[in-house]
User: Fold Metallophosphoesterase from Rhizobium grahamii CCGE 502.
Amino acid sequence: MPSTVRERLKLDPGDIPIYAIGDIHGRLDLLQKAEQAIIDDAATIPGRKLIITLGDYIDRGPSSAQVISHLMAPPPENFDRICLTGNHETTMLDYLDGLISFSDWMRMGSDALLRSYGLDPDQLPRIFPTAAKLDGFIRQSIPKPHVDFLRSLPIFVDTPNVLFVHAGIDPMLSIDAQSDDDLVFIRHRFFESRLPLPKVIVHGHTPNDEPEVLPKRLNLDTAAYHSGKLTVAKLWKGRVHLFQT
Assistant:
């Protein structure tokens, strides 16, 4: 089964405020603070609001499993929530599907993910002498509802004026022609191209000390797992407002 999530959502939100959250990487504490800040900000706005999380919920930080459980639960009252996939989610599924090795997966900071499920990534290879036994044990140990949730995540949300995606796009291709790999992994071809972008691209994936705010690109990845700064962008009525934990 291919692990890359291929669903691509098209949405016309009208006048609904959208709150986009950057890369979380196992920081449940920051996610909860960000959601409370969103709730407080939206308290005087009537009707439904939308939260879009930009992927990379797992690895590096201490609470990957707990972040997944939180995102699987209902969103705050009067909010809808769309969780996009990131490259860390697709890589985890690649490992579970037998497409990459345990050592390749661990290079993603996935030792922290295993610990969040109560597993010891240092001891496991000593306990299970073959890769097949090790992989089989890990597959059995990660809850199936969590895996099913990660498989279900769409890869972007395309609105009339803004595209929400994990990594970015190839500016040489139309949005409909983008590859799944580019949508979750692209960097230099996206950043360095001089071609005009088709609309505002709101993304994460490439960490910076502060959010990058450009006329057609907004990068919300502020390396929350070690900086303690999880960045949120509120997009409403043609304006962008940024705030952080």
Confidence is low (pLDDT under 50) at residues 1-5.
